[in-house]
Design a protein that fits this description.
Belongs to the prokaryotic sulfate-binding protein family. The N and C termini lie far apart (about 80 Å). The chain contains 5 helices and 3 strands, in the order ααβαβαβα. The protein has one domain: D-Maltodextrin-Binding Protein, domain 2. It is of the alpha/beta class and about 150 residues long. A 3-stranded parallel sheet has the order 2-1-3. Strand 1, helix 3 and strand 2 form a beta-alpha-beta unit.
């Protein structure tokens, strides 16, 4: 039996439309370098949850595009519609200004103390099973780790 919501429940329908109109969905594309893939995979979900909490339930979805940062910068210059870039080399940010005019010339000095919006993720690899039990960075200072 079909029910016509307009006849049976006009207030329910109006409330549903009102609520549907209030919550908005936002999608961002983060263009980043390969090494940061797992970092952002871990950081994005809690950020999306906090976004919803701070923005009246609006849904944020962060998509990721990963490759070498130079390759990512070139992809943007060729039309990739990234909303956010997180690169590890200043030259890959600079080319977005130089070739694409996507950033102002003073992008490096716009933040206090000439802070630049790029960083580098450092990592080290150990042999399978971590036979020397290296965990924090400070343990790399031990002489026994040198070749």
């Amino acid at each position: 039996m079909a029910v016509n919501l307009l006849k049976k429940r006009p207030l329910t329908l109006a409330a549903m439309l009102l609520l549907a109109g209030q919550a908005q969905a936002t999608e961002l594309l983060n263009s980043s370098y390969d090494v940061s893939r797992e970092l952002f995979a871990a950081l994005n979900p809690p950020f999306e949850q906090q976004w919803a909490k701070d923005n009246g339930g609006d849904k944020l979805t962060i998509k990721q595009s990963h490759a070498g940062s130079s390759k990512q910068a070139l992809a943007i210059l060729q039309g990739l519609k990234a909303d956010v870039v997180t690169y590890n080399q200043v030259t890959d940010v600079q080319i977005l200004h130089d070739k694409g005019k996507l950033l102002p010339a003073d992008w490096q000095s716009r933040l206090p103390n000439n802070s630049s919006p790029f960083y580098s993720t450092m990592g080290f690899l150990v042999r399978k099973g971590n036979p020397k039990h290296i965990h924090p960075w400070s343990e790399l200072e031990r002489v026994s780790y040198t070749p």
